[in-house]
Amino acid sequence: MNAPSLRLGSRALPWTDVVPVVAAIAAAVTFGSKPGTLVLVLAGLLLGAAVLSAVHHAEVVAHRVGEPFGSLVLAVAVTVIEVALIVTLMISGGDETSTLARDTVFAAAMITINGILGLSVLVGALKHRTASFNAEGTATALATVATLATLCLVLPTFTEAESGPEFSSSQLAFAAVASLAVYGLFVFVQTVRHRDYFLPGDGDGVVADDDGDHAAPPSDREALRSLGLLVLALVAVVGLAKLESSAIEDLVSSIGAPQSAVGVVIALVVLLPETLAAYRNAARGRVQTSLNLALGSAMASIGLTIPAIAIASIWLDGPLLLGLGSTEIVLLTISVVVGALTVLPGRATVQEGALHLVLFSVFLFLALVP
Q1: What Cα–Cα distance (Å) separates residue 91 from each residue in 29, 38, 100, 250, 309?
Q2: Helix (H, G, I), strand (E, B) or coil at 154
Q3: Phi/psi of residue 334, each to 5°?
Q4: What's the number of domains the chain is made of?
Q5: Which is one Pfam family of this protein (predicted)?
Q6: What's the rounded Cα separation, in Å, for the pair 47 and 360?
Q7: Residue-number span of the structural domain to which 327 is assigned
Q8: What are the tens digits of pLDDT across the range 240-289?
């Protein structure tokens, strides 16, 4: 987990320590502005560097606290920042952003269930013939994601209290409380009662040439510093993503894609840290950790975002449309079914990984060409 260093005077600082500070300053300086092309390009480069830095510090924290706490820290941290970004854009966007929460949360679910999970399984299977993981914990996580997605994204399409695909005030309050309860129960099961269900097993095929597997855990001071830099890097990612949001909207409009594609792009940017962290863990043979990241991120994205948006809707103008359309419901259903068939045996081949990546590509294509 050592990173190249930048020498400042007589002291060498890793670039992963410098980038979050620089990126956060850049996000603060450009907040609320409409910069030119050159600034947007530089901001995009900083955004990518901040994502890589976030992955590094997440791994440091994960190495200190161990699994499944490490995956939980990154998933929750990114989701909290994602919520802040959604609320900020909805406040500034008015009625045009009434579906932004739905589009972003659904995109996050598809990216994690199909994109990250599929990539993790494929990489693990390519390296070790089959990707092995704990079926009990992974199936529990997938079932929780399916329950939350149905409650928050599918039911609003069919309820009758409101004419559109939205909850009434009482229904939204119930969904928010139920989501928090389900997510809180899962965290208790994952970290306390059945923690062993979410730990890498002997069959995970962990490679022995990874320095991080043998290095001593960082000290409490180093872990706390990395935790602070992780949060700072994620704040910078969101700030710079918001800066790029107008350019993203212009790009979406220029290619004739629907407005919902904006939520897809936002979710792709925000979930980059999880994607890279999951890939690196899968490449090292820790497929269970990768699946913890994938499904934990999906769960946190729904279980924390919807309650936060429900509270924020008190001050937001316009409707809050959460219900998915028929195409999205079909995609969600087939993704859950294929996901269940993938995780229940406790091991998967390149076929299962490829199937999830195909579903992910279908989601991306239909997001651009509905």
Answers
A1: 20, 27, 11, 19, 11
A2: helix
A3: -65, -30
A4: 1
A5: Na_Ca_ex
A6: 24
A7: 5-368
A8: 877 877 777 777 778 877 878 888 888 887 788 788 888 988 998 889 98
